Amino acid sequence: MSAQPRQIHLNAFLMHVGHHEAAWRHPATNPENDSVDHYVGLAQLAERGKLDSIFLADGLALWNNVRYNFSGRFEPLTLLSALAMATSRIGLIATVSTTYNEPFHVARKFASVDHLSRGRAGWNIVTSSQEGEARNFSQEKHLDHHSRYQRAAEFLDVTRALWDSWQDDALVYDRNSGVYAETDLIRPVNHTGQHFSVAGPLNVPRSPQGHPLLVQAGSSEDGREFAARYAEAVFTAQQTLADGQAFYADVKNRAGHHGRSPEEIKILPGIAPILGGTEAEAKRREAELNDLIVPEYGLSQLSKMVGIDLFDHPLDGPLPADLPTVDDINGNKSRFSLVIELARRERLTIRQLLTRLAAGRGHRVFTGTPEQVADQLELWFTSGAADGFNVMPPYLPGALTDFVDQVVPILQQRGLFRTEYEGRTLREHYGLARPSARPVAGTAVRAGVPR
Amino acid sequence: MSAQPRQIHLNAFLMHVGHHEAAWRHPATNPENDSVDHYVGLAQLAERGKLDSIFLADGLALWNNVRYNFSGRFEPLTLLSALAMATSRIGLIATVSTTYNEPFHVARKFASVDHLSRGRAGWNIVTSSQEGEARNFSQEKHLDHHSRYQRAAEFLDVTRALWDSWQDDALVYDRNSGVYAETDLIRPVNHTGQHFSVAGPLNVPRSPQGHPLLVQAGSSEDGREFAARYAEAVFTAQQTLADGQAFYADVKNRAGHHGRSPEEIKILPGIAPILGGTEAEAKRREAELNDLIVPEYGLSQLSKMVGIDLFDHPLDGPLPADLPTVDDINGNKSRFSLVIELARRERLTIRQLLTRLAAGRGHRVFTGTPEQVADQLELWFTSGAADGFNVMPPYLPGALTDFVDQVVPILQQRGLFRTEYEGRTLREHYGLARPSARPVAGTAVRAGVPR
């Protein structure tokens, strides 16, 4: 048995006409085409590039300033189900929040998508971070950050138990005896906890992957602990190689404290690649996009990130000195820290900061030739900062087409990326094991199965 | 303008290998094929027959005795989204409960499916009727019947307001000015009620149909009132023409009390057609299916319907005299009444009753030649008992193939059913208007739209 060389994993983070907030104003995009066909094209493009997966983000409120940008009309799990029909190999990851959902619904929908897609479903587990989301779900106040993660942990305990409530071979289809399912192999979960009481069993048989791939994207203290315990892939925003290395080492180390090996959790920093035939051309493209920025839009986003209203501060001055501290932030704590640090480290004015955040909302922007971008990816990959990357094309489909046609082949030539899909399931693409359902207990287990 | 002759509407109610509880044991079915391809085949078959819609039922617990039958592995909204990609004209209706869901999620998912399918989404609105569902959603006790309908009514008020929170022309995509959406045309809903507080607006633009087609399937007193107020199509179980006529007149009359015209609400009784080249052949097929019944399965279903455990009663005796009354039933009240009435009217033993319920769970079984079945449909349609039918094939795909190839052409020859789709949307198939979003109020409406 020859050792498989370690390879880069690539996820395409799809966002309507791209991650750059002004992409929709650029002539290379067509925001009016917000149909499913647009997303089918993107998913098939990513599949042509042999990427591990595509990913759809989500939020439970109209939370950006829709006057200047809007991220699309689809709810992720319904769109993902449609995309399952238009693709055959690529993994399909969607964000679903644990804050304003019920574990039974979420476990069931992901099991269903895993069946539909024959084992290609992944769940990006988030806690809802915006006040506006609470108000759409009969809550006056948003749950605080720590409680959200406590709820998320119990949510995962329940969903994993539900996915394991059917053994793989429970369905027997015995026409002669009239026995459809071996009910000894279907068990209630009988969970009673602080946030949830769920009897189970699930009403969906165990799916091809057993559990969907579990992805996580919060990098706060609570977020890292959660990732170390539950996540199999982590999306993260890191601005410098040193920060990326520190994060990588920390999360792998924490996973060890939970009895997991470092290979069981893949770290995927976000990158926003802007490519050009020459470095100058790439920089020109970046400038073209940045010239289309509407400051009001970025200001509303940045105000939320840093927790104060920046509209009354001069655009060409620095961030105000009297900012909140990370303890005051009840939204995305790690993004708050990253933005403040970036502004201070590089002594950016608010206007400059808006420009730095426009393409990737805090994720690293790699602007350059395909060789230069590939070099950066290889550097992060071989320097202990990444197992792969969450690719966030600033404009779509163009920037993804360029990445697939120009960067992927270089990675393939260097032996760093697959030239064909070898696995069938999303777990196989990421080199992750299929979890087995826990063995049936010796006691009677049919109590929860209706007669 | 020539008057359009009134035409029959047909919905195909899809259920894995068929509605007959023993269908999976019959050599004409293949229960092991529980993949999305099976459902794609059924949806395309119904579309070939020019049917108005397909429909998927749902429940939020493993509620039938899975040892002897199981209705399939998919969650309806994810499956429906996949089927949207494999069809182009037929309507797509899924059940979602108002009892253990949140209006924001449900409004959003149906808007998303309506976008995905280009205007073909329909929502069968139910209240959850089983104790086991409560226990999957952190509730000790199931909500009582009347409270469920109160919650359902408020749920509908909120979802309709959310669908109307975007005007149709809110997205303007003005690249020059940088204005993506006209935020004066996107308004919060600011609902505060007994069960829900929802700020809105929805984070999905208004969908092709404005609202999905609203379908309802409960025939109790509360159910009829709910239908009269909200439903545009009603699925109902009626055993006799007289009962069908009475129900039809009652619901249309009630709709009038809510200021609606009789044409705005379509009544679709369920029928389970078993076809044969001769009446004898059809009856032989029915007997073949009934011979495969496992009494334990039917007994567990019937016990739930009538609200007492029937396992200790002799199969060849009548239903016990000391049954609950309809007031005692907290599940499906109308099905309870129908079953008791059927057993008493025809003096059926429990075993005979099980056989009568096996194919359609209380829906009318039409066994005969294509001509005979078409005659029955025409009779119900022209006698004030139906605007169309909810077709429940006892085994699949065979019984749907027979219906499409043998019954539909007869209805077409009689001028009772379309020979081609004329409309594009599900509402157009049913001859129902697209609701307009309510006009924007004069007051400032941007309060709920983030800056």
Automatic annotation (TrEMBL), chains A, B:
FMN binds at D58, T95, H145, Y149, S219, S220. Gene3D superfamilies: Luciferase-like domain. SUPFAM superfamilies: Bacterial luciferase-like. Pfam families: Bac_luciferase. It comes from the Bacteria. One of its GO terms (molecular function) is monooxygenase activity. The keyword Cell membrane does not apply. Signal peptide: none annotated. Its EC number is 1.14.-.-. Keywords: Flavoprotein, FMN, Monooxygenase, Oxidoreductase. Residues 25-385 form the Luciferase-like domain. InterPro entries: Diverse_substr_monoxygenases, Luciferase-like_dom, Luciferase-like_sf, NTA_MOA. The keyword Flavoprotein applies. Belongs to the NtaA/SnaA/DszA monooxygenase family. This is Putative monooxygenase.
